[in-house]
């Protein structure tokens, strides 16, 4: 989740692709014959599968054992890194599918949501922070599904920045850092909340435009 995902391919991103490349309603270029089962989508599914693994490691021994907090952080980081890998593979091999455009952000939200709820349950993060981010993410996901018949809303660069900052902030809270890091962690999470709200409003505007027949043309998922 630290970089562009596998459906973040701009219109016209494959100048040498020839006639096999088609334009879909969201303005994203992709191969008409790209199978849904491809390495980029498999990595997305793996990311979803790592969510319960992450939760188990987070709550082992009461959730505050240094060793298991480090393990949980590693699992979280591996899951987040798959977002960068599948993005690179998709851009290189043209593995863009509607499944990926919908499933990839859902995978990100499942991982981020699990981490936030877990940290709040353990008392390490205020519930109001988790509530704001969770309501936004769930609302945007439901909104995306609701407008599917009009087209797929791709995530813009702001959405990816939001996910990156969220991941970094969560990483700071997951790691068993000394108290001197508390201020830095709080600032990072505050920035994450701000970006979460701002980008959420942007997606609402995109949904309204999409229902009005104006298709987004920016790269993203």
From TrEMBL:
Record-listed E.C. numbers: 2.7.8.5
Cellular compartments annotated: Membrane
Molecular function in Gene Ontology: CDP-diacylglycerol-glycerol-3-phosphate 3-phosphatidyltransferase activity
Keywords carried by this UniProt record: Lipid biosynthesis, Lipid metabolism, Membrane, Phospholipid biosynthesis, Phospholipid metabolism, Transferase, Transmembrane, Transmembrane helix
Lineage top rank: taxon: Bacteria
Pathway: Lipid metabolism; phospholipid metabolism
UniProt xrefs under PROSITE patterns: CDP_ALCOHOL_P_TRANSF
EC category: transferase
Membrane topology: Multi-pass membrane protein
Sections of the chain in a coiled coil: none
TM spans (from-to): 39-60, 66-85, 106-122, 181-205
InterPro entries cross-referenced by the UniProt entry: CDP-alcohol_PTase-I, CDP-OH_P_trans, CDP-OH_PTrfase_TM_dom, CDP_ALCOHOL_P_TRANSF_CS, Phosphatidylglycerol_P_synth
Pfam families cross-referenced by the UniProt entry: CDP-OH_P_transf
Family: Belongs to the CDP-alcohol phosphatidyltransferase class-I family.
Record-linked NCBIfam families: pgsA
The protein's name: CDP-diacylglycerol--glycerol-3-phosphate 3-phosphatidyltransferase
Species of the source: Rhodococcus daqingensis
Gene field: pgsA
């Amino acid at each position: 989740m630290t970089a562009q995902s596998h459906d973040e391919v701009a219109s016209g991103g494959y100048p040498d692709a020839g006639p096999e490349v088609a334009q879909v309603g969201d303005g994203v270029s992709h191969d008409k014959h790209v199978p849904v089962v491809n390495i980029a989508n498999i990595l997305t599914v793996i990311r979803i599968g790592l969510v319960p693994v992450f939760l188990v490691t987070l709550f082992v021994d009461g959730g505050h054992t240094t060793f298991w907090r480090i393990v949980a952080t590693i699992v979280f980081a591996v899951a987040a890194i798959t977002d960068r890998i599948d993005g690179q593979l998709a851009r290189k091999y043209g593995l863009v599918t509607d499944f990926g455009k919908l499933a990839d952000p859902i995978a990100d939200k499942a991982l981020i949501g699990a981490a936030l709820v877990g940290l709040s349950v353990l008392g390490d993060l205020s519930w109001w922070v988790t509530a704001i981010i969770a309501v936004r993410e769930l609302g945007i996901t439901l909104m995306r599904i609701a407008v599917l018949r009009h087209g797929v809303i791709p995530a813009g660069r702001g959405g990816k920045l939001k996910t990156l900052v969220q991941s970094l902030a969560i990483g700071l809270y997951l790691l068993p850092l000394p108290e001197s890091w508390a201020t830095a962690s709080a600032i990072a999470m505050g920035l994450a909340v701000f970006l979460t709200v701002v980008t959420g409003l942007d997606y609402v505007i995109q949904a309204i435009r999409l229902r009005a027949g104006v298709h987004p043309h920016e790269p993203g998922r």
